[in-house]
Amino acid sequence: MKQKLLIGVVLVLALLAGLYLSVNIAPPASAQHANLYPQPRALPDFTLVDQDGENFGEERFRDHWTLVFTGYTYCPDICPTTLAELKSIYPQLQQIDSQYPVQVMLLSVDPNRDKPERLKEYINFFNPEFIAATAEHTELFPFVRALGMMYAMADSTDNPDYLVDHSASVVIINPQAQVIGRFTPTLMPGEMAVVNPQHILKDMPVIVNQAP
To answer: Within a 10 A sphere around the Cβ of 112, how many other Cβ atoms?
Structure first.
């Protein structure tokens, strides 16, 4: 009787241990926060100009995971906040995939004011390893749309302090230069609508591990 009781206790403890490990240690089976597309989306041909004045094409996305945020350097709120959040998690992002490192990119939707020199000074304030790039609107608009994002001039550009409306999501591009989804802002009453960096940290390892 005692032996059967002991075996029963051991089985119960093993079951409880398994449940604990599955909840607290094992990674989730799928991304919990990212909005992933059913199929990766190829990008159209494009040529941007980065903060060093160099051409930026599809090859710069290959062999990296890339988190792309659309914004501009004169943005008063969402842009600096999002970049600061990405800066805060960047060291952890670098530990996710040694073969295809994660890179962070600001895609400026204000090419009139955001020339390479301005982009470089701005992005270096957050992290010199970050990328900043832009292009003329004829090149930029279809590229932004291909990312699943939008932007529009909120004011006349005759006003030197004009604002630009733009998407606040963070787009995910895989090492094959395909758009696979995005992280959308967390909407909380009374708070700025920005992407939660902890959502990125939680989901990116899952997304990378499940990549073909």
So the answer is: 14
DSSP 8-state code for residue 73: T
Instruction: Provide the number of structural domains found in the chain.
Output: 1
Task: Report if residue 39 sits inside a domain.
Answer: yes
For the annotated binding site for Cu cation, the residues are 75, 79, 166
**pTM score, two decimals?**
0.84
Q: Is residue 118 part of a domain?
A: yes
Rounded to whole angstroms, the Cα distance separating 42 from 139 reads 16
In this structure, what CATH number is given to the domain that contains residue 107?
Answer: 3.40.30.10
Residue 205: name the closest of 20, 18, 40, 26 by CA. Answer: 26
Residue numbers in the chain where pLDDT is lower than 70: 1-29
Q: Residues 6 or more apart from 113 whose CB is under 8 A from it?
A: 72, 73, 74
How many whole angstroms separate alpha carbon 111 and alpha carbon 184?
Answer: 24
pLDDT digits (tens, 9 = 90+) for 74-85: 999 999 999 999
Q: What would the two tokens of residue 205 be?
A: 């390892």
The residue range of the domain holding 115 is 32-210
Residue type, 212: P
List, for residues 91-128, the tens digit of each pLDDT value: 999 999 999 999 999 999 999 999 999 999 999 999 99
For residue 56, the Cα-to-chain-centroid distance in whole angstroms is: 18
Summarize the annotated binding site as residue ranges.
75, 79, 166
Question: Is 76 inside a domain boundary?
Answer: yes
